Amino acid sequence: MKKVLWVVAAAGALLLAVAAMRADGASDKAAEKAAEEAAKVWLGSLDAGDYAECWKQAASLFQSKVTEEQWKTAARNARGPFGKVLSRKVKSARFERTLPYAPDGEYVVIQYETSFENKKDAVETVTPMKEKDGAWRVSGYYVR
């Protein structure tokens, strides 16, 4: 009888764990979708060369690390030589709670396969984070 109770208890615990993982997975997917939408808007400003607007739309963490003028110079230098975006598609998106050199929080690291006029095969990495007000805003950008 004790063995049966133990098996039932273990099965119940396993079912609860699976349900919790599914709930976390669903919430991670919702976060990824919201972060991708925020990244899309932000990238639209970047693609248009409106670097000041990119900075204004960025996360407070981003703004605390780089001034608007520093960002405009860096973005112009990094993106200018590549020319116009020809295509961009999501390569991967993953939800993270911790990232190197960043405070713990909610982040989504999104990688895009991007083709520019002067650089056919590029990978853009955009990292939106969930801010205290619940909005997703870009906290990092890198292109290679």
Characterize the structure shown:
By secondary structure, the protein is an alpha+beta fold. It has one domain (2-143): Roll (Nuclear Transport Factor 2, Chain: A), CATH 3.10.450. The protein contains four helices and four strands; from the N terminus they run H-H-H-H-E-E-E-E. The chain has helices at 2-47, 51-57, 60-65, 68-79; strands at 85-96, 107-116, 122-130, 136-143. A hairpin with a 5-residue loop joins strand 3 (122-130) and strand 4 (136-143). The longest helix has 46 residues, at 2-47. It is globular, with a radius of gyration of 20 Å. The model is unreliable at 1-23 (pLDDT under 50).
Concise synopsis of the structure shown:
The protein is an alpha+beta fold and 144 residues long. The chain has one domain: Nuclear Transport Factor 2, Chain: A. The chain has four helices and four strands.
